[in-house]
Design brief:
Blueprint (H helix, E strand, L loop, with lengths): L11 E3 L4 E3 L1 H18 L8 E5 L4 H12 L3 E8 L8 H16 L3 E5 H5 L3 H8 L6 H19 L4 E3 L4 H13 L3 H5 L4 E2 L7 E3 L7 H11 L15 H15 L3 H14 L14 E2 L6 E2 L6 H12 L1
Parallel strand pairs: 3-4, 3-6, 4-5, 6-8
Antiparallel strand pairs: 1-2, 7-8, 9-10
Bound molecules: Fe4 H S5 (Q46) and zinc ion (2 copies).
Length: 309
């Protein structure tokens, strides 16, 4: 297999795009495509301040690397979740993220949930979901709240996450199986800014997971290989495996599913009729937007944890 650009031996063969490239041309192609998607979906401009949510994994570190190479003003945000299970997941991921930022002279904000609020994710989960421990549900609420808070308090225009195509398609499949139309209406490469919430963007949403792995490895980015220990057995992983089998038989199937969804979404297929549009409220404790009148789920969860500890 030869590189389409220079004819030397290819390092990456992307059957889904009928495209093979050598190391050098692959490492140029991926940021060029990212820049194209940033413009196509109007994610952000050169003068906007971008906050990249970094976990120490290949996708978020690669995203930060790419934005830096493209000349964007991109700082990092690392949330210390206090997950000591497995190989000491949080400590390892923090160490690799800090090393990445230091080596490139990039600005990294670190928020440790345990020292900020008094509880790590496993403890919060045990205190608030006693009997049926659900760390991921708790973790999702905390991450969303903290990313919004830091972006707002530090004056960032945009919050960027490293979701890749495999992540997006597995969420989409889950939402489709249960016809979660409201969630489908909110699944997009860009969510506009809204009443104090920064714009949210996913610049890697059209790249396959294996393309991102190849990018991180070929760029020599040191990232955490292990998944969070709480992800084992999740439906997301199950859907990803199913989709990989489909992709294997029909290269390009994942991308086609996602792009056709975006087209359908653009045409208004998932917009709820105006009479069902939900009003939004501001949480009286933290000020963030919430679907319910009264305190947001984060503030309610913290109060519940305090009353049980
Ligand atoms: S970090 Fe948090 Fe994930 Fe770990 S506890 Fe679950 S949600 S699996 S992306
Ligand atoms: Zn080449
Ligand atoms: Zn709140």
């Amino acid at each position: 297999m030869k590189c389409r650009t220079c004819g030397t031996k290819a390092a990456v063969n992307m059957r889904q795009h009928k495209l093979a490239l050598c190391k050098q041309h692959f490492l140029e192609w991926l940021p060029e495509q990212t820049a194209r998607f940033i413009k196509k979906y109007r994610m952000f401009g050169q003068h906007e301040k971008v906050l990249v949510a970094v976990s120490g994994g290949k996708d978020s570190l690669s995203l930060w690397d790419i934005l830096h190479r493209l000349g964007y003003q991109a700082d990092g945000l690392y949330l210390g979740l206090g997950i000591d299970e497995g190989i000491g997941y949080s400590d390892q991921s923090r160490r690799l993220t800090e090393q990445f930022a230091r080596q490139r002279g990039l600005t990294l904000h670190v928020v440790d949930i345990r020292s900020t609020y008094g509880y790590d994710i496993p403890t919060l989960s045990a205190l608030t979901h006693r009997g049926h421990n659900r760390p991921c549900a708790v973790c999702g609420v905390v991450k969303r709240h903290e990313m919004n808070r830091i972006a707002r308090d530090l004056g960032y225009d945009v919050l960027a996450t490293g979701h890749n195509l495999d992540d997006e398609v597995s969420v989409l499949l889950g939402n489709t199986f249960s016809w979660q139309v409201e969630l489908m209406a909110r699944q997009a490469p860009v969510l506009p800014a809204h009443d104090g919430l920064a714009r949210k963007v996913k610049p890697l949403c059209r790249f396959y997971e294996k393309e991102m792995t190849a990018y991180a490895l070929l760029r020599g980015i040191e990232y955490i290989y292990e998944e969070c220990p709480f992800s084992a057995g999740s439906t997301t992983i199950y859907y990803k495996e199913m989709l990989n089998r489909l992709e294997n038989d029909r290269p390009g199937a994942k991308l086609a599913f996602y792009l056709k969804f975006l087209e359908a979404r653009e045409s208004g297929l998932f917009q709820p009729p105006a009479e069902f549009a939900q009003p939004m409220y501001n949480c009286p404790s933290c000020g963030q937007l919430t679907q319910y009148e009264g305190r947001c789920s984060f503030c309610r969860m913290m109060e519940k944890a305090q009353s049980h500890s």
